[in-house]
Amino acid sequence: MTKERDFDRLARAWLEPGPDEAPDRAIAAVLLAVETTPQVRPRFRWPIRRSINMNRYVLAASAATVLVVVIGGGILINRPTDRTGTVAATPSPTASASATPTAPASEALGEPVPASLIARWMGGSRPTAGIDPASGSSLAFTSSGFSMTPPAQTNNPLLGAVAASVGDTTIRLTTTSSREGRCAIGDTGTYTWSLSPSGRTLTIAAVADDCAARLGAVPGTWSKMACKDPNDSCLGDLEVGAHESQFFAPRVDPGVVAAPEFGALTYTVPDGWANRADWPTAFGLTPSSDYVNEPASGPPPDTYHGIYLFTQPAASNQTADCNGEVVTTTGRTVKDLVAWVQSRPSLIVSDAASVTIDGHDGQMIDVRLDPSSTGTCPDVSGPISVYLTDSGSAADDWTWGSQAGEQQRLIFLDLGDGDVVLIGIDSSEPDRYDELVAQAMPIIESFTFK
Amino acid sequence: VTPPLEGAIVRDLVEQAQNGDREAFAALVAMTSDRMYALAARILRDGVLAEDALQGALIAIWRQLPSLRDPDRFEAWARRVLVHACYAEARRRRTWAANVRVLPVDGPVAPDQIVSIDDRDALERAFRRLTVEQRAVFVLHHHLGLPLVEIADAVGIPAGTARSRLHYATRVLRAAVEADAAPVAHEGRMA
Predict the structure, then answer these.
(1) Which of A118, A259, B35, B48 has the most CB atoms less than 10 A away?
(2) What is the ipTM of this complex?
């Protein structure tokens, strides 16, 4: 009878038969794909150099490849190359050029696409074969081309077409290659479009399209991706209202390469805010008045002002290289992490206050560096205390610390199932800190996590 | 245990592949893809899904390889990427549990002396009711024979979580087999 059986033996025997040889076609497809697939190459090979600017604290974000820099809390993305683990992110918009037209496109040419449309635009899930419904999608217009892509796969355009303006607010899309098999050569679609007053929200409506796949995917509302960092796909300056993240993945296990998950974070902003980073392990919002002065390489040294989110925080020792070293004896619960920060002799930390955001419980503390602190880090002038890092063991990581003059509010939020997200309000300008907190807290309170 | 020579070869291949050598990567694929496919097929119980997971994982491995800190950990790292590719594949095909395809079987399908056809059916049905995360832990333990610590590392979860997932999966599958056996015993008594 079953009870007498050795269940382990039974399980092994049950699992034993089955396919043990990878299909040749699968391997051939992989090797073919690899021929044209670039590797994600960190800017610096391990051991990673953490600091690239004076007083900037580096952090290399997550599984994918992001190098994020946090100084005291200030974040800045530093040359990621991609974030999905499956495809390269090519910064500039690409369109039908990659579709290798097999029929003359001249007939489809008309007036150039209006300059206001020439950009990459982020949308939600679209019923397009080749795009994971969970990852969202983006479309791109060039002056004469159109394509859709998965969010981080701009070298993998789908539905490529020649685009032409055929009226003030009408666009014609003509397929010139059937390589993808989604539309036939000569398939033509006509769409009307409108832009919000800011030019950041594009609404497309179908008039007609011979290609059903395109007809099902293109209409709708799209948000302009105007990230200053050419390797990031953040939105840049935001429209007033609700928005969704495209890459941030707060529930992905530490050290795991995250796939884009559209809408893992939703947030609502008033006028004058920008989304300055959207990576699997890091997300950033900052006032537009600060973002406008920010070069593509990130905020100027010693300048931190905004809201920062990091996934899967862990207690960190401050090592000589300040690369972050997980304190394995400290847990990763909200309570453990708050206790860890409060116990740092280099910090002045407030009592913890309970918070609830999107139904998730958390604790909030205010943090600043103790004036008597003497900790230092390479390439950082002045004292600094490093006390948090990521929990991951894979390629990339981040660290968080406090510098002299910096003021921070940290919220550790328990998302359940062992996932904790760190939300930080951080300013290197003490005179603006209270104003930042007053602006940031309503935004943080609007957060929802999918 | 990986023999030292093989370990050295793998390390060399990984380092070459990290520098963009596609032939070295092809050699790594040849060395590891069968094991990876076998693992994916047992977690997903579907050859087509397993093939997709394998492809996704191998391309992700190629892309992420320069970021692998310790080439000696290639196999464990690749296994983790694969397990998560299985998660992604399962999520992508959320209908899979309701649209089950039979797992292709290369080996003998005749009932053996350990697992009866009824047991197999019961295990298959119960296995499909598990989450893909629970399945992964169960397969890593019972098919690959990994201890919990290595399973935790392979999946990227605390050992306690791996233990609880394994415990739950075992309990469900054991109960299924026992429930399947129960009517037989009942009939026996009736007889």
Answers:
(1) A259
(2) 0.80
